[in-house]
Specification:
The complex is a heterodimer.
Chain A lengths: L3 H19 L21 H15 L11 H4 L1 H9 L12
Chain B lengths: L11 H11 L4 E5 L2 E4 H17 L7 E5 L4 H12 L3 E5 L5 H11 L3 E4 L7 H5 L7 E3 L9 H4 L4 E3 L21 E8 L5 E7 H14 L7 E4 L7 H10 L4 E4 L9 H7 L3 E4 L2 H8 L13 E4 L6 H10 L4 E6 L9 E5 L16 E2 L4 E5 L12 E6 L11 H7 E2 L8 E10 L5 E6 L3 E4 L2 E4 H12 L4 E9 L2 E10 L6 H11 L8 E5 L12 H14 L1
Parallel strand pairs in B: 1-11, 3-4, 3-5, 5-6, 6-7, 10-11, 12-13, 13-14, 22-25, 25-26
Antiparallel strand pairs in B: 1-2, 8-9, 14-15, 15-16, 17-18, 18-20, 19-20, 20-21, 22-23, 24-25
Helix pairs in contact in B: 1-2, 2-3, 7-8, 13-14
Classes of the chains: A mainly alpha, B alpha/beta.
Chain lengths: ~100, ~525
């Protein structure tokens, strides 16, 4: 069965593929050790947008307050941080 | 320790050297987890300076370096200055064609390359005609480079001089230029801005006093060296005997941990760092207690960001600085006080007043000075204003002008401001962002503010569309993915606070803001999107 971590990972991987496609880069190997920022795919604004996307899709609030940047810019670590984040009330139906 | 009164110096390297003689054992630089004392850095710099001087026949006014956040990058800045030349920073992350154009345009015939730049050399050097001397202080293994590029001379580590003898700054050549930077023009063609020793030293005198720098201070170094705000980091720090902390690439986006681990006291960055840290919930109250001063520059500072930073860095004095490269680093300042949001225009913190000894005025389209309270283009004059663009007479004449009844030179900033009742300059946007909608002049910044306020996000932008020579039919708004987003209530809020012609005709909710190469929101791309979205309907 697909776990929540798998779903979040798949969501991020899809965003990386889109990002690579729009910036005409070859998508990197999408394993858990990939550093999204070091790979040159996400700058700060783009990363903020990725986080917003994860929060919205999975109804959670990421708190990275005390983490080293590497602890959330690396794919596997970001998945773990998201899984461990508290859930928020599900979004009301869109109009 | 009390702030040392700044010893007089007339050259950046002499300013560094004064501190190095006074505090040889104090730390000057922390980079890549290594700390370098003033004596060490002084020695490295003098060695590089002497290596250049020994081979310098053409006596060009500037020399370039290609390195990134390494000890060699900082030593190269100082070494080039020690040789008597001005420095031209090149960026290992820039497209090679752009770097090649900058190098050629600068006229530099020396290039210092750090270990991190060596791999770029084959692409960079191919096609460069004038012979270069390429100094590689980090390696003896140059591979096939000398054979592949016989036109250029290579100086491996082993041939670099290890010390510069007792000479201070070389008197011959002694270039008036401190550094040469490139700004991207609105046309997309970069312009070279030579900044003189006199320009920078004027800035350093003023800010050393203003921020009472002491040798115990620990400075952030966030800015890339191709950005002139890095000159503040390096030389406000080094002329006062303090220590510079080069923020590693991996921490640039989210530097909170770096700040508290190293107990930084002086902070300087672009405001967008705050937005990122806010979003990542890193700006908890009192979480950055070591900071004494927090300075922001480079883009508009929102009151909401200033407040969030102030809560986190509660011991620090927060200032918004403003200034174009052409007027040396920063030329105006505004001291933020918690709760002073009412002094802001469109939610943007004022840019305040120019530094003592510098001058500002606001002009209209006919280049006549306007009364306080009237919006117009900001012009600045004084010892920080540079002499114009390198080899670009036409552009220099356009931007560096004389105004009636005075023969002094004013730099036209292209920024739209007004002087408020307190004599404080309020930033309203770029002149280029002004558009006419149905005959009315509109500042998009004002629409952005209404959108941000109503949608409770910083990710809200307005564009005018379709634009034809400054005139547009209507304004359209964009906001980024939000929970429970109600576009109708945002439009209703806009109707309450703005005249009809400023209210976005449509508000589009998009997943992601398109960003330009500088990582800023790409308005032209959004304007194009309006056309696509409307035609798609």
């Amino acid at each position: 069965m697909e776990t929540r971590a798998d779903q979040i990972r798949a969501f991020i991987q899809e965003r990386i593929r889109q990002k690579a496609a729009t910036s005409r880069q070859t998508p990197p190997a999408l394993d858990d050790s990939l550093n999204l920022v070091e790979a040159g795919l996400f700058d700060s604004l783009a990363f903020v947008q990725l986080i917003s996307g994860i929060e919205k899709e999975f109804n959670l609030e990421l708190d990275t307050g005390d983490l080293d940047p590497e602890e959330f810019t690396v794919l596997g670590n970001l998945v773990r941080a998201a899984v461990e984040s508290p859930a928020v009330a599900p979004e009301a139906e869109k109009k | 320790m009390m702030p040392a009164s700044l010893p007089s110096f007339d050259h950046l390297f002499a300013g560094f050297e004064n501190a190095a003689r006074k505090y040889p054992l104090r730390p000057a630089l922390h980079v890549n987890e290594e700390t370098c004392s003033y004596a060490d850095l002084h020695k490295l710099a003098r060695g590089l300076g002497a290596t250049i001087r020994d081979r310098d026949f053409a006596k060009k006014p500037v020399a370039a370096f290609l390195a990134y956040r390494s000890k060699t990058a900082y030593a190269a800045v100082l070494g080039i200055l020690a040789s008597g030349k001005g420095y031209v920073p090149l960026h290992t992350g820039f497209p090679v064609e752009r770097t090649k154009a900058m190098l050629a345009f600068s006229g530099a015939d020396f290039l210092i390359v750090g270990a991190e730049g060596i791999a770029l050399l084959p692409d960079l050097l191919s096609g460069i005609e004038p012979p270069l001397t390429v100094i590689c202080p980090d390696t003896d293994d140059l591979g096939h480079l000398p054979e592949a590029f016989p036109r250029h001379r290579f100086v491996p580590r082993g041939d670099c001089l290890k010390d510069g003898g007792t000479n201070s700054v070389s008197a011959d050549p002694r270039s008036p230029i401190a550094y040469l930077l490139f700004t991207s023009g609105s046309t997309g063609i970069p312009k070279g801005v030579p900044v003189s020793q006199r320009n920078v030293i004027s800035y350093l005198r003023c800010t050393s006093e203003r921020y009472r720098v002491i040798p115990e201070d620990r400075f952030s170094q966030m800015f890339d060296m191709t950005f002139d705000l890095s000159v503040h980091d390096m030389f406000l720090c080094w002329t006062n005997g303090a220590c510079l902390y080069s923020v590693p690439h991996s921490s640039l986006m989210a530097p909170s941990r770096f700040i508290w681990q190293n107990e930084l006291t002086m902070w300087f960055s672009v405001p967008s760092v705050i937005m990122f840290m806010q979003k990542m919930r890193m700006l908890k109250p009192n979480s950055l207690p070591s900071l004494r001063f927090s300075l922001f520059c480079g883009e508009p500072l929102l009151a909401s960001m200033a407040e969030a930073w102030q809560q986190a860095a509660h011991h620090s004095t927060l200032e918004n600085l403003y200034g174009p490269t052409e007027a040396t680093i920063a030329i105006s300042h505004y001291r933020w006080e918690s709760g002073s949001a009412s002094c802001c225009t469109n939610g943007i913190v004022p840019i305040g007043r120019v530094f003592p000894g510098q001058e500002a005025c606001v002009i209209d389209r006919e280049r006549q000075k306007v009364a306080p309270g009237v919006a117009g283009e900001l012009c600045v004059a004084g010892s920080q204003v540079t002499g114009g663009y390198l080899n670009n007479e036409a552009k220099t004449r356009e931007q560096f002008v004389t105004l009636s009844e005075s023969d002094r030179t004013w730099y036209r900033t292209g920024d739209l401001v007004l002087e408020d009742a307190n004599g404080c300059l309020q930033y309203l946007g770029r002149i280029d962002n002004q558009v006419q909608v149905c005959g009315h002049r509109v500042e998009l910044q004002e629409v952005d503010h209404a959108l941000r306020a109503a949608s409770k996000t910083d990710m809200a932008v307005s564009v005018a569309w379709p634009i034809d020579s400054g005139h547009a039919d209507a304004i359209y708004g964009f906001v980024c993915e939000q929970r429970n987003f109600d576009t109708q209530s945002v439009i209703e809020h806009c109707r309450k606070v703005m005249p009809d012609y400023m209210v976005p005709r449509r508000l589009f909710v998009i997943d992601e803001m398109p960003l330009n190469v500088n990582g800023k929101i790409d308005r032209p791309a959004l304007a194009k999107r309006v056309g696509e979205l409307l035609n798609g309907n």
